[in-house]
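Quick note —
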Amino acid sequence: MPIAWPRVPGHEAVGRIEVIGSGVEGAGRWANAWAWASSAGSCGYCEYCRDGDLVNCINQGYTGVQQDGGYAEVMIAKASGLIAVPDDLSSVDAAPLLCAGLTTFSALRNSPARAGDLVAVFGVGGLGHLGVQYGRRMGFEVVAIDRGGGDRAELSKKLGAHHYIDSSSTDVAKALQALGGAQMVLATAQAGKAVAAALGGLRRGGVVISLGASDEPIELSAFDLLFRQLGVDGALTGTSKAGDATLRFSAMSEVGRDDRNHAARKGGGSLLEDDVG
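Predicted structure written out below.
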């Protein structure tokens, strides 16, 4: 991602619109609080946008990277990148949901898992602590996986996990299979080995969705992919509309609002996780 310096960082911003450009339509809807996530807004005319795949817009910059971000007193935002903030969700609670929240919410909502299925969250840190909460509120049987017991296990249960697996002392794949096998594993861990380990814990037809940004290769068995029909996918973020849904769902289900979330963030996250949120 080339950066033109100087640049003001900050890819999770919440504010109120002071000035609307002459070419922006629907001016009356911009009165309330709005947010900007990492994606700065789709172009609307590239081949991906024309096909409805706004996340993969080839002309879309990133807030705080190609354009100044939320650490500034004021910033310029494309209307196509705005996310509506519900009136009952504070700016402080909304901002952390614009990257980690949007990413985990979209990945879970778009996954093949359905209410009642066993879903595992690998890494209970900046991304994972929200994934556990969303998973519980979406009706999944949630397994939290992280290194160590004690406080980490207790926090995971408070966040909503039905089960906890200590990956430092337990074979993750065997533990998941003992629970019946996961329909989906949300891998927030940045290590390729962690994603590969999660594959063994899937039930037939299950999928691992990787969120951790890493250049470490993921070693897979063609035998498992073929004869157990397993899948590996990735999820980067979501559209502005998905951002609207993320914040509405979070407000309704009170995700990201209490001391458990502050404890997860303050605790430094998982040793397994790339806290890009």
